[in-house]
């Protein structure tokens, strides 16, 4: 199923991105959301992947394919940590690097990877991981 479209919404700031993915916070299983952005950071589409209690498999090729099909200029990724700790795991950091490199080869920028844990949100861009 293709990502859902929301073309009128603009994601201009980190606050906008956190608001877009706020529904991920507090979940009992790990869930991942992707936002595909076009010109002026207009939302072209969203994809959500539901995982397990402590992990979710992210199909990097599918994310890249969606970016191509939507003619996205940028992608945002966000996921939750059901244990409430927003610090990135080694797997989170590795995925972020792989996704950023893969998207970059397509001319698409990974804007940020947000991790929701409890009442806190960690930004991998702010941490220097992107």
From TrEMBL:
Pfam families this protein is in? RadC
Any GO molecular function: metal ion binding
Q: Does the keyword Thylakoid apply?
A: no
- Transmembrane stretches, by residue range? none
Provide the MPN domain boundaries.
9-130
SUPFAM superfamilies attached to this UniProt entry: JAB1/MPN domain (SSF102712)
Source superkingdom: Bacteria
Any idea what this protein is called?
DNA repair protein RadC
Q: Which organism is it from?
A: Sphingomonas pseudosanguinis
């Amino acid at each position: 199923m293709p990502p859902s479209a929301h073309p009128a919404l603009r994601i201009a700031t980190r606050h906008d991105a956190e608001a877009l993915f706020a529904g991920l916070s507090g979940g009992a299983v790990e869930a991942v959301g992707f936002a595909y952005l076009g010109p002026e950071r207009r939302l072209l589409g969203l994809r959500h992947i539901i995982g397990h209690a402590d992990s979710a498999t992210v199909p990097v090729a599918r994310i890249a394919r969606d970016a191509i099909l939507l003619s996205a200029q940028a992608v945002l990724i966000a996921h939750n940590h059901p244990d409430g700790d927003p610090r990135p795991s080694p797997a989170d950091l590795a995925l972020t690097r792989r996704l950023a490199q893969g998207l970059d080869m397509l001319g698409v920028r990974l804007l940020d990877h947000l991790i929701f844990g409890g009442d806190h949100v960690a930004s991998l861009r702010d941490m220097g991981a992107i």
